[in-house]
Batch of 2 targets.
Target 1
Amino acid sequence: MIRDYAVVGGGIGGCSIAALLNAHDHDVVLIEKEPTLGGCASTFIHRGNRYNAGATTISGYHEGGIVKRLFDTVGVTPNLIATDTAITILQGEKSCIRYRDLNRFIEEMQRFYPHPKHDEFWRLIHALQGAFYTLEASYSYSNRSRLKKIASLLSFFPLLKTFRRYLFSNALEFIQDFYGDIHESYLDFLDAQILIVAQATSEKINFFTAALALGYTFNETHYPLGGMVAVCESLTSKIPDVRKGCELLLVKREGDLYHLTTTQGIIHARNLIMGTSHYESSRWFDDKEIRDYYASFEKRNNHQSAYVLYMKIKTDTLFHHHYQLISDSTLPYTLSKSLFVSFSDPSDSDFASGYYHITASIHTDSRIWLGLSPSRYKTQKQELHDLLRGWICDRLSIQSDEIVESFAATPKTFRRYINRTQLGGNAMTLSNFLPLLPSNDTPISGFYQVGDTSYAAQGWPGIVMGAFNCIRLIRG
Ligand SMILES: Cc1cc2nc3c(=O)[nH]c(=O)nc-3n(C[C@H](O)[C@H](O)[C@H](O)COP(=O)(O)OP(=O)(O)OC[C@H]3O[C@@H](n4cnc5c(N)ncnc54)[C@H](O)[C@@H]3O)c2cc1C
C-alpha cells in the first residue's frame, strides 16, 4: 500500500501537520520513535512519578490565536486551564509578576524597578505583539525554488512596512536608547525573558523579535492538564494511523516514492514530512540530494540545548505555575543567568495529589556535555543538579525534607530519547534571519520539514505557524 503522506516524529511539528493533513482528508501515517508523543513537549514517568520533559506552558491558545486556530481546524479541544499570573520573576531579593493586564503589569514594574519610561516602553511592547498577530495569517515562506522564495518573501511586505523601524534596530541598542539610563540588572531581567522565547539575548536580535518575546504574556497562557503529552494526544486523536514506538531507520528515494524502513516494517509514501531537527536528520538518508540539503543548513546549528532538573515535592505551600529565577552571573556549564521553573497544578488529577511535580530548565551548549569521559560527565551533571536544586529551594523556600526525588536531563539524555541535542530550534538573530532559514517545503519533490528548526520558530505558536505554512504550500 502506498501512503500519500508519511510524517516522521510526533513532536509538536509532526503532530500539527499530521492533524492538519487528516483534517483536510489526506491519507497520512504519523510515526514516533518513543512510546509517547510530544518529543520536547512530552510527559514521562520516572519511578512512578509524572514529569513534563521540557515544555510546560502553551501560548497562542487565546481567541484568534494560532494554536487555538489549529485545534479548531482539527475539531478537538485540549484540556487546558488559563494561567494568570503567567510568570513570577525572582531577581535578587525582589519579585515581579508578569500579569496579563497591561496597566496592572506596568504598576508592578514601577514597584519592581521604578523608571519614568516604563509606561511608554511596555505600551509599545503590548502594541507591537498585538499588531503582529493580526497580520500573521497572510505570511507564507517557501524554499521550493528561488522564484517561489522571492514571491513568498513579498508576503512579508506589510510586516516590513509596518514594523521596519523595529525590524532593523538592534534590540539592545534600541532599549538602551529608549531608556537613556538603564541598570544592568534591568537588562538581565529583560534578557532572561527574551531568551526563553527568542532563544537569543537582546544584543543578537532585532527589537521587533525582542518585543514579541517580551510581550507574549500579554496574551493568555495555558497550563496543560494531564501534562503536555495530553495536548499532543488530543491533537492527533482523529488520525486513524498513529504508530508509537516506531522508529525510522532508513529512507530510500526511488522516483516519486519514499521507502521508509522502520522498527515496525516498511512504509511507502508519495510525500515525506520530517518532524525531526534539521541538524540531526541526515543520518537516515542515503540520498545525496537530501543529505546535501541538510548539510546546507549545518552552519545555522548553534548547538544550543537544555539542562533540565526534575523534582517532586510534598508541601503545604501554594506555588504559582511558573517562576523565573535570575542570577547576577552565568551559571557554570550553562549559557544563562536564569532558570525557568514550572510547577504542576494542584487540581491536576494526573499528578499525585498533595505533591508538586517540577520541571526546571536552563540553556546550555550541547558541546559542554558531549565527548566527556563517563566519570567527568557524571560529576558535572551532579554538580549542576545540586546547584540548581539548592537555588530553587533557597529562592522558593522549599525544605530539603519536602523533596521526594530530584534528577536531571542533559543534552545527552535528550539524544538518547528523542535523537537530538540541539534544542529550541533556530534563534532568529540579526545574522540568522528569514531568507537564510529553512522553510517547510524544500527544493526536493515531495519532501517537507516541520518543527522548531524550520519556519517559523520554536514553541507552540512558532511551530504551529510552520505547520499552517506547510499545509498551504502542500495544497497550493
Ligand atoms: C527544556 C525546554 C523547555 C521548553 N519550554 C517550552 C514551553 O514552555 N512552551 C513552549 O511552547 N515551548 C517550549 N519549548 C520549546 C518546544 O518544546 C520545542 O520547540 C518543541 O517541542 C519542538 O517540537 P518539534 O516538533 O520541533 O521537535 P521534537 O520535540 O524534537 O519532536 C521530534 C520527535 O521526533 C521523534 N523522533 C526522532 N527521531 C525519530 C526517528 N528516527 N523515528 C521516529 N521518530 C523520531 C522524537 O522522539 C520526537 O518526539 C521548550 C523546549 C525545551 C527543550
Target 2
Amino acid sequence: MKKIIEPIRIEIPLGIMFQSVNCYLIPGKQLTLIDCGLYSESNWEIFQKKIKEHGYQVADIEQIIITHEHRDHIGLLPEIMANCNAIVRVPKMIKEWFSQPGKKNKEEIDFTKKLFNSLGFPKDILKEVFQYIEEVKGNRKFTNLDRFEFFEEGDYLEMGNTQWEILNTPGHCPSQFVFLQKEQKRIFGSDMLLPIAPMPIKVENPNEKGQPVKGLVDLLNSFERLRVFDIQTIYPGHGPVFNDANAMIDKQLARMKMRKEECYDCIKSGLNTPYHINRKMYSFQKMPPDFSGMFMVLGYIDLLLQEEKIVKNKEGFSLPI
Ligand SMILES: [Zn+2]
C-alpha cells in the first residue's frame, strides 16, 4: 500500500458563521493547493506566513484546485497565481466565474435580491440586506486564464501521489465539488461535509432559468450518495479534520428532521412568511450578516411542500385546506 500523504491544513480567518476557512497544501510529485481562502490584505500575509511555517513558499505551488466559486474559497487566487506558475483546475460549470466574474456576480446579486424580496422582510430590514448583498459579493479579477483547466464529475485529480475521484455534490451550491479517495476512505469535503450542517444557499437553478435550486433537497441526496463510501477521514472546507462521515451525516439529519417539524409548527401556528418563521426559529441570528438560518428555513419549506404538508398561497405558506 502506498504511503498516505497527510494534507496540511492552512486556516485563513473568516469571521462569519465559521471562524476560518481551510486551504489544504498537499505535498507530493507536484505541490497542490486546494482552495484559496477569503481575500483581504492581511489574509494574504497570513497565507504566505502559514505556508512558510511548513517550509514552502507560494512560488512552490504547482497545482491549484478549486472546490466551488464562493468568495471564501477563491479569494486569494489572483495573488497566489501572480506569485507562482501553477496550473489552476476548476469545475467546468463555473468557468464564467473566472472569465466574466463581473457578469456572474451581477446575475447572482440580482437573483438574490429578487428572492429576498419575496420572503416577507420588513422594508427597512430588506434595505439593509440588499446593501449587505451588494457589499459582500466578490469583486476579484482573474488574469492568465490560459492557465485554467476544467474538470467535471467523474474525472480524476492527482494530489499527494494519489488519484482522487471528482464528485459533484450539490446542496450547499449546485457547483459544489468534493474529491474522494475510495480505498483510503478519505475525502476533501469542502462545504459539503462539515462539522455543522452546510448552508443550502438558494441560487438560480443552472438547469431551470429563473427558478431557485432546492438546495436542502439536493443536500439530502448528496448525503445519501456519499454515505455508501463509509468515509473515515474528512478534510472539510471549514473547521478541523474529522472522522466518520456517516456519524456526522446522521447527526445533521436528525437535527434537520427536528427543525423541519418546528418549521411546520410555525406554519401551523399562522406564521406564513419565511421571514417570520426565521425570526421565530433563528432569533439568535442577526440577518445580515448571517443568512444560514434563512436558507435552512427555505430548505424546510421545500421539504414540507414536497411532502404536501403545506401549500404556497398569495400570502406565503399555510396548511392545505
Ligand atoms: Zn461555500
